[in-house]
Amino acid sequence: MAAEFDFFRTSEEHEMLRDAVRSLAEAKIAPYAAEVDEAGRFPAEAREALEANDLHAVHVPETYGGSGADALSTVIVIEEIARVCASSSLIPAVNKLGSLPVQLAGSEELKTRYLGALARGEGMFSYCLSEPDAGSDAVSMKTRAVRDGDSWVLNGVKRWITNAGVSQFYTVMAVTDPDKRSRGISAFVVEKDDEGLSFGAPEKKLGIKGSPTREVYFDNVRIPADRMIGEEGTGFATAMRTLDHTRVTIAAQALGIAQGALDYAKGYVKERKQFGKAIADFQGIQFMLADMAMKLEAARQLTYAAAARSERADSDLTFFGAAAKCYASDAAMEITTDAVQLLGGYGYTRDYPLERMMRDAKITQIYEGTNQIQRVVMARNLP
Ligand code: COS
Predict the structure, then answer these.
(1) Which of 140, 182, 376 should be mutated for ligand 1, with most atoms under 8 A from CB?
(2) What's the CATH code of the domain at 103?
(3) 3-class DSSP state for residue 72?
(4) Residue 368 falls in the annotated catalytic set
(5) What is the DSSP letter of 131?
(6) If you measure from the C-alpha of residue 104 to the centroid of ligand 1, how many angstroms do you get, rounded to a whole number?
(7) In a domain, 217, yes or no
(8) Which of 233, 248, 273 lies at the terminal end of a domain, its last residue?
(9) For residue 160, which atom of ligand 1 is closest to its CA?
(10) Closest among 283, 276, 288, 296 to 343, alpha carbons compared
């Protein structure tokens, strides 16, 4: 029997989508990227442009009013936005992270209500899993949800919540039965206006400064019982299934940041003259660029392979999602660091975008599970 090959190429539609998002990102998002970083302000212009063009939450299925983009299209959208502004790429990425638990496990009523609102641009979605003492060890969370008649009452603190304060909707994992460990955790939708919900001061971060990261406080937040996502006790598994899919979007973000850095450095070395010629003519520089492009392409192929698994919800997605996130983020860190090096002293200044890209790349090795946790996940799910 002839061997079977799984050739993978992006389709013409995917490449048309890439061209469209690239044009939009260059026209409407790139002009603000440096200032958004410098001021540490939310990129409202990006949100407006993405919502106006239905690119803020492309993963939402058509049934719920979304554009029903496949996982690879979502990756391409995030990649192209991150190429010019990593902070802005967190709008579609975290909208997917926050709402995917509803999409994967929520009732029809919750899906219609919240995925619909997200698709219509009525509010962004954040994801609340981590706590001050429960980061990598997510099962050790303390936030409690206690049943009281037809309501659940939430108390606790979530930390490192991306887009907190800006988002209208929050998927929150909380302990409903402390004796059952991971099987005693449930997921809920909490709204910004629910009484008792408040936010901490924005964290002062190294990068992605345009995307607010804050603590979220739950002080007797009472929500109707039908806001539970799926059955009681399934919240941790839903949170992990979500991350299997969305780690692919962090890989996409890493690819975009790295591509932005490589594109900029490629242009610079042709212009910059030393020793009487463009530095692009020196073999030492050429070898650096070749390595950067090679690593980026390897990361892209792994990420797109993971996106295909995400789309089909294959059983090896857990491995592929972790591998893509880990590999692409490590590649982005190396590539952006080398891109700064190619610009020499200029790369180290804020007059050029590369130091921002290098700072932004760092978070991709940390969030949605550190790259050490990705290796734990891969080792437990070896293909
Ligand atoms: N899909 C579905 N269920 C999953 C799963 C997945 N990918 N991964 C784990 N689970 C389930 C397990 O099957 C287990 O269920 P049962 O007890 O019913 O068998 C349960 O979840 C607990 O899993 P496990 O025993 O593996 O938990 P551990 O505490 O050993 O470790 C890790 C889990 C470390 C992998 C997890 O806590 C993790 O991913 N941590 C990082 C969290 C993270 O990414 N934080 C970033 C926040 S988002 S910015």
Answers:
(1) 182
(2) 1.10.540.10
(3) helix
(4) yes
(5) B
(6) 16
(7) yes
(8) 233
(9) 49
(10) 288
